[in-house]
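During the reporting period, our protein records have gained a structure token line. One record among many is quoted in full directly below:
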Amino acid sequence: MIKLVDSHCHLNMLDLTAYHGNLSALLNVARKNGISYFLCVSTELISLPAIITIAENHTDISASVGIHPTETVSPEPTVEQLIQLAAHPKVVAIGETGLDYCRTETDKTVQQERFRRHIQAAKKLNKPLIIHTRQARVDTIQILKEENAETIGGVMHCFTEDWDMAQKALDLNFYISFSGIVTFSNAKDLKEIAKKVPLDRMLIETDAPFLAPVPHRGKPNEPAYVQFVAEHIAELRGIFIEEVARHTTDNFFKLFMILK
């Protein structure tokens, strides 16, 4: 059986109706489908205790610490507070963090300052960044450069930007991660990018419970479905899924410094 990793999911948000509220049952389905590891990603600090508990209860789950750019937080956490929260041994990354100009509820300046604090915390912890970016290509790359984020690197999660930004991110020591969006019929430009990104710089994810891939599009997403992302990328590139699985799994453990 191939071994895959869901490099970005929100296990604390999953719809467990079909599993009678049992997260372990859902995870076991994923494991039976070859998913060997899960990264449960934080988007707000209020849910962090639940995320840490999930990670502590499963040897194949790690966690991150971060605040999504569109979240409203008061007061904003300091760099020192982020460092303290991320010192837990199950926390392997800072994020998701970044810039999202698609939504206007959160002021751009607030987003940018929060982004910088996350980068500074990641550098002090020597833990990679998980970047969320939408309609903010120039500012995202500029801030990463200004804060010398290439010294720790990370991943552009759920990538939906253009090839130019992908190249700039790769040059800054970041991986590119593809979600179920790459399987959508209208994601033609993204499919072309998935053909170009070097396999040794690629990750795959579900972003569950969001963005379920074809053939489950429109339904609640779950980690088991990362196999459809891998299958589609293999089809796009004309290679076997085993090759996609091997590279993306190896990349994950290398980036997040986790022993297999």
About this structure: The domain at 4-255 is CATH 3.20.20.140 (TIM Barrel).
